[in-house]
Design a protein that fits this description.
166 residues, mainly beta, 14 strands
């Protein structure tokens, strides 16, 4: 499980694994799910350009042998599978079917590149976008810390849960 649920893009959240026989140096990983493939298939796929080795569970994360809690984790927006590997075993197991991390995922421009003083459309797609979310267009030399109040996306949303676009 995760706290908060659902987590949002690039904000800290905690992951709690519940089971039996959890131990020091078990490993966990997140992968983008593929229909019909198990975690072991995904994590050992030779076509995967950078398969994760997993992250070891540390002593401070264990509560007995039934709970492991990873705190302060962050991820980009998207849908993921949690995989868990018990120490000493070869195969990974799928812990949950899907973890959804909300937030903007990608954008499209109808004119590439946009031309100064000419109209263009930007489409922002993401998970769990909602009325009250805001966007702002910044100069290339600025970062998100420089953003002001932004513009509300209410009235611009289309699609259906959990995927929306504005």
């Amino acid at each position: 499980s995760t706290t908060p649920t659902p987590p949002t893009r690039l904000t800290n959240f905690d992951i709690t694994f519940n089971g039996a026989g959890l131990s020091l140096y078990d490993k966990w990983a997140t992968v983008e799910p593929r229909i019909g493939q198990r975690c072991t298939d995904l994590l050992q796929d030779p076509d995967c350009p950078d398969p994760p080795n997993g992250t070891a569970i540390h002593e401070s994360q264990l509560t007995g042998d039934t709970v492991a809690t990873v705190t302060g984790h962050q991820m980009e927006a998207g849908e993921f599978q949690f995989c868990y590997k018990l120490r000493g075993l070869q195969d990974w197991v799928t812990v949950t079917t899907t973890l959804t991390v909300g937030g903007a995922v990608w954008k499209d421009f109808d004119v590439i590149p946009p031309i100064q003083s000419q109209p263009y459309t930007i489409t922002i797609r993401g998970l769990h976008l909602a009325a009250g979310d805001r966007y702002e267009i910044l100069d290339a030399n600025q970062n998100c810390d420089d953003a002001g109040a932004g513009t509300d996306v209410s009235g611009l949303l289309s699609g259906g849960g959990p995927w929306y676009e504005a």
